[in-house]
Write a structure and sequence with these properties.
Elements lengths: L2 H13 L3 E4 L5 H11 L5 E4 L15 H12 L2 E8 L3 H9 L5 H4 L2 E4 L6 H10 L12 H11 L26 E5 L11 H13 L4 E5 L13 E4 L30 H7 L3 E4 L1 H4 L4 H19 L6
Parallel strand pairs: 1-2, 1-8, 2-3, 3-4, 4-5, 5-6, 6-7, 7-8
The structure holds 6-sulfanyluridine-5'-phosphate (S5P).
6-sulfanyluridine-5'-phosphate binds next to strand 8 and helix 10.
InterPro entries: Aldolase_TIM, OMPdecase, OMPdecase_AS, OMPdeCOase_dom, RibuloseP-bd_barrel
GO molecular function: orotidine-5'-phosphate decarboxylase activity
Family: Belongs to the OMP decarboxylase family.
């Protein structure tokens, strides 16, 4: 099993969460504040670095380093939703270079396989050049917190203390992971069953790097398959909504995004639910994240035939 997958499985068990919050907001400061707010309730925090204004590229104390430090404090993984899709050589530059230097702070990235399997090999080569940073890097967390406070961004105290999470080590592996987009949640997308099977075949060739898929259902079919499935297009049923910040499951947003409930996704066998606007636009993102966590966790327990204590 990919080491990030086994760490994620531990996180899921200990944090009782299968939730990935997608930071679909447009300021770097607000993204960091959101990471603080939802950190206790999530196992993965998904970013779109290129939609953020105010990204600080400083490798030691900038936005990426601050987010990595928050992730370490709250024990969640960072997934940069970069959707690489270019030729191998360009994808390598996009992964490690520029102002974002995604490789340095994102444990997980994703890619379309439209350009063929060599692009996956290219990203893996780049991922293998990454070295685990030293403890000093993580001092950036305090820097991040005070910088946010200075700018007047509300930073809430974590509800889990460091001590409570003491038995849950930070990610112990110097590895990076890749998710392949095997299915999409948008109406009329072109990822048909043949394309999905091609993704699975490519993933099997690179199991040391590909940890799973963005897909709408589990895709493992061979006895040796241990791929995770993370699923977007997730929304609470309206009768459970705290504030109407989400879309109605079974319907689309104005631009073709299609929604399913967290309960249905977990019962279907998905590993992680991805929720963006339903949490980012909520009056209380932290409270809303905990609600999503709870309903998904209960459905997951039901799927496993377990009941909550
Ligand atoms: O098929 C997909 C793949 C992804 S990664 N459909 C998606 O919606 N996503 C991402 O999940 C999308 O880019 C967005 O960041 C998030 C869903 O956001 P929401 O507001 O609809 O929950």
């Amino acid at each position: 099993m990919h080491p990030i997958t086994s760490y994620l499985r531990t996180l899921i068990r200990l944090k009782k969460s299968t939730l990935c919050v997608s930071a679909d907001i447009t300021s770097a400061e607000e993204m960091l504040a959101l990471a603080y707010a939802v950190g206790p309730h999530i196992v993965v925090f998904k970013t779109h670095a290129d939609i953020l204004s105010g990204w600080d590229p400083d490798p030691d104390h900038g936005t990426g380093a601050q987010l990595a430090a928050i992730a370490r404090q709250f024990r969640f993984l960072i997934f940069e939703d970069r959707k690489f899709a270019d030729i191998g050589s360009t994808a390598q530059l996009q992964y490690a270079g520029g102002d974002y230097r995604i490789l340095e702070w994102a444990h997980i990235v994703n890619a379309h396989v439209i350009s063929g399997p060599d692009m996956v090999r290219a990203l893996k080569e780049t991922a293998n050049t990454w070295k685990m940073p030293t403890e000093d890097t993580f001092k950036a967390v305090n820097l991040g917190k005070s910088a946010l406070k200075r700018k007047g961004v509300a930073v809430k105290a974590p509800t889990h203390t460091r001590e409570e999470l003491a038995d849950l080590e930070a990610l112990p592996t110097p590895k990076r992971g890749l998710l392949l987009l095997a299915q999409m949640s948008s109406a009329g997308n072109l990822l048909n069953a043949e394309y999905t099977s091609a993704c699975l075949a490519i993933a099997r060739q690179h199991q040391d790097f590909v940890m799973g898929f963005i897909a709408l259902e589990p895709l493992n079919s061979d006895p040796g398959d241990e791929f995770l499935v993370m699923t977007p297009g997730c929304s609470l049923p309206p009768d459970q909504s705290l504030d109407d910040s989400e879309f109605v499951p079974g319907t689309e947003d104005a631009l073709g995004q299609q929604y399913v409930t967290p309960q249905d996704l977990m019962l279907k066998g998905c590993d992680i639910i991805i929720v963006g606007r339903g949490i980012c636009n909520a009056a209380e993102p932290s409270m809303k994240a905990d609600q999503y966590r709870k309903v998904a966790w209960e459905a997951y327990q039901k799927r496993l035939g377990l009941t909550e204590e």
